[in-house]
Amino acid sequence: MRPTAALAALLLAAATPAVAAPAPLDAPLVMTDMHLHDPWIVADEASRTYYLFTRNEAAMTGDKRLGTMVYASRDLKHWTKPKLAFVLPEGLWANAGAWAPEVHRWKGKWYLFTTFHNSKAVIGKVGPRETYRRGTVLAVSDTVDGTYTLVRGGEPIVDKAQMTLDGSLYVDPKGKPWIVYAHEWWQMVDGTIEAAPLKDDLSIAGPARVLFKASEGPWVVGQKQPLGDTVFVTDGPELYRSKTGALLMLWSSYGEKGYVEAQARSKSGGIEGPWEQLGPLVQRDSGHGMVFKSFDGKLMMVLHRPFANALGKLYEMRDDGDRLSVVREATELDGEAYPTHPCVAGHSSFDGVTPGC
């Protein structure tokens, strides 16, 4: 006798092993409690857990060592106390930094990109400034939340004679990895965003190419330095492939009212560009953002605001095909400890044109 559809469904359910629900998290923190700068969120489908990486803060972990800490959440609102995911070993070339951690899945492992420097390791002089070692290093772990260990002895991915920071992994349509990074204004005066091809072990495979200069952003304001010169800042590149195949980049610099989260678009659809500037997404001392998909399918962006004593801010985003747009600040998640950008409340333009934005 053939079973009915309902009976068949019951039999199938009985034969299918139950998937255990993730163990509950002890998550007493909300974003207004959390020290963070240059936030990076991994939405880990396997554990249905969001991991937020940022520079270690002794006030949060009780550990003064230089490295990366990670918070965890199941709902983007309630977060665990942070734990150390990576500690820079003593005796290496670097003694400061731990900026802009990014975590990516690559070839079955998790890789951490994070930037360190050492002001006493002088490498030359540009105008009135001595340049010194600054660069993004690579560390690896079997698990997303660490512990991460250094790759290649902690040497920077990019040539150590260059002052670079905020290295980000981009994988092109052919599956080839690239590092995209900011070449520091300290050395360049007019900071650049550059990209270099990588081998499968994430070491450099070829020469870097300049994608654009900071001053190409019409909204970018030069920063007068104590020694008298004016410089232009590039920070925090992250690549995003839109639903129509457009290659977009989030990046940050300074505008008329502080730090700014902006976007650019490749006219060719490839990393080589040429790149055109699309203007600010969020202003008023907000920046160094990245986008991710929430477990309910929403496109989200996290950034920090303000630049000093920063807290995390979450935005619901929209993929318009040729660009990203801000839908709203998710104040029910981030707590809105600082006044929101005036454009958010009215869902107005974020292109930097609307008066008062």
Automatic annotation (TrEMBL):
The keyword Signal applies. It holds the Pfam family Glyco_hydro_43. Pathway: Glycan metabolism; L-arabinan degradation. GO terms for molecular function: hydrolase activity. PANTHER family: ARABINAN ENDO-1,5-ALPHA-L-ARABINOSIDASE, ARABINAN ENDO-1,5-ALPHA-L-ARABINOSIDASE A-RELATED. The keyword Hydrolase applies. Residues 1-20 form the signal peptide. It comes from Sphingomonas natans. InterPro entries: GH43_arabinanases, Glyco_hydro_43, Glyco_hydro_beta-prop_sf. This is Glycoside hydrolase family 43 protein. Belongs to the glycosyl hydrolase 43 family. Keywords: Glycosidase, Hydrolase, Signal.
